[in-house]
Amino acid sequence: MIVWLAGCRAANPAYTPFQIAADASDLSRADGVVEPTSDGNDFSRVPAITCPADNNLILCCRFEGSLKDESPSKLNVQSGTVRFAPGKDGQAVRIAADSMVHTPMGVVPASAHATLEAWISPSTLPEGSQRAGVLDHNSGYSIFVYPSGVIRCGGVGAMELLYSPPGLIRAGVWSSVACVVDDNTMTLWVDGVLKASQAKQPTTTMMGTEVVIGANNVDSANPDLDPFDGMVDNVRIWHSIRTPAQICAASLNCQP
User: Fold this and answer.
1) What is the CATH number of domain 55-249?
2) What is the C-alpha end-to-end distance of the chain, expressed in Å?
3) What is the Rg, in whole angstroms, of the alpha carbon atoms belonging to the chain?
4) CA 173, CA 123: separation in Å to the nearest integer?
5) Residues paired with residue 90 on neighbouring β-strands, in sequence order
């Protein structure tokens, strides 16, 4: 069965609903209708994070009951089985092994400057040699969660990898993550606070292939390695450098 979600296609085979809340009434329906929670909170309120009419914003998914890209690009965001539930800011999407979200190949422009933003609440953290993809453009920019609550920002090539200190990401806790790349520097931010930085060589990345949310974008034939297990919200990709004040404003707990 194919379900259309606000102009975005999602395959919806028979499956057991994800257990992401204490009560089934806490889940929004797969058709994108927001249902009240068991505690009576109204999650249909307008979310705080916005998708401004800025041509530097090339992807903006707030997951308010749909996969709609609200950036000026209006990309055709697609997924397998999807489920929406109350998040920290309105609705969020539940990511699991069969529900990574992606944009089709050839839709994201090339840019040497980029800012990647996402809110995440992992149900579990990777262990051992595992990792979990939050946002990945193969051979381009990426965000991954590693064991012990480490976040990794990736630039272009194997040498452009920036790791956070451990303990910043916790299971069941919402965190905002941002990676900023310019000609000479990579920086990593958690909850609006700078956590790591390093120098880099000037490069021009290619962002002309598929971007995956919730997995490792290995290739189009096998895009779902390193799956993320948990909730994702407010994914934004900019081909511009966001300022510290802007990153703070788009975070969860930052005090400017």
Assistant:
1) 2.60.120.200
2) 47
3) 17
4) 8
5) none
- Is the whole-model pTM more than 0.85? no
Rounded CA gap, 39 and 193, in Å?
32
Q: Which residues contact 57 (CB under 8 A, 6 or more apart)?
A: 51, 71, 72, 73, 236, 237, 238
| Measured distance CA(55)–CA(32) in Å, rounded | 27
Distance CA 202, CA 157 (A): 12
CB 112 within 8 A of CB 205: yes
| Model confidence pLDDT, tens digit, residues 14-69 | 222 222 222 222 333 333 334 333 333 344 445 688 999 999 998 999 999 999 99
* 3-state SS assignment for residue 24: helix
Where exactly are the structural domains of the chain? 55-249
Q: Which among 72, 59, 40 has a CA at the least distance from the CA of 238?
A: 59
Strand positions, DSSP E, 77-159: 78-79, 84-86, 91-95, 101-102, 114-122, 132-137, 142-146, 150-154
The residue behind tokens 């300022």 is 243
pLDDT digits (tens, 9 = 90+) for 207-242: 556 788 998 887 555 545 899 999 999 999 998 999
Ramachandran area for residue 79 (φ above 0: left; ψ -120 to 50: alpha; else beta): beta
| Residue 242 DSSP symbol | P
